Amino acid sequence: MDFIDRHAVTHGVYGWWFDNRLPLVPRNGCIERDGKHLLYIGIAPPKDRPERRGGPTPVKSRLWRNHLRGTVRSSTLRHSLAALLEQELELAFWRVERNRVRMDRHHEDKLSEWIATHAAISVVQHDEPWSLEEMLVRNGPPLPLNLSMSGHPFRSTLSNLRRALGRN
């Protein structure tokens, strides 16, 4: 997060890189660097949500609040990772109003620890990140963990794993 502050990244696209400990995810054609593969990209702020004045930058806030310390309800990425790591981390789920998936804080913390150990983040400043995100997801390298706008063949497998959480 210090990088974001030092380089004044406010709006942009961020990439999530994972080592080979993330099960099931195909990595063919994915960009690799330092033993990790780029498997997901996201943006901040979203196109439909204006920036809040006086708080942390949208990029820093989104990464910290939603992905690093958030919940499976607040982050599509965390939801996907939880589905992929359910057995390995012995995660437990239940469903609440409108059929949304939940985990208790202990299991969210286990997921956060796994992310801290096995993932890395890259960030690029862009004033209209939604346009770059769409171009990358539709025309860029394979991004098997992106669901929105994605035509990746792993999309249906990942969607089914996510849908099955908390239904036992």
TrEMBL record:
Residues 12-163 form the GIY-YIG catalytic domain. It comes from the Bacteria. It comes from Ruegeria pomeroyi. This is GIY-YIG catalytic domain-containing protein. It holds the Pfam family GIY_YIG_2.
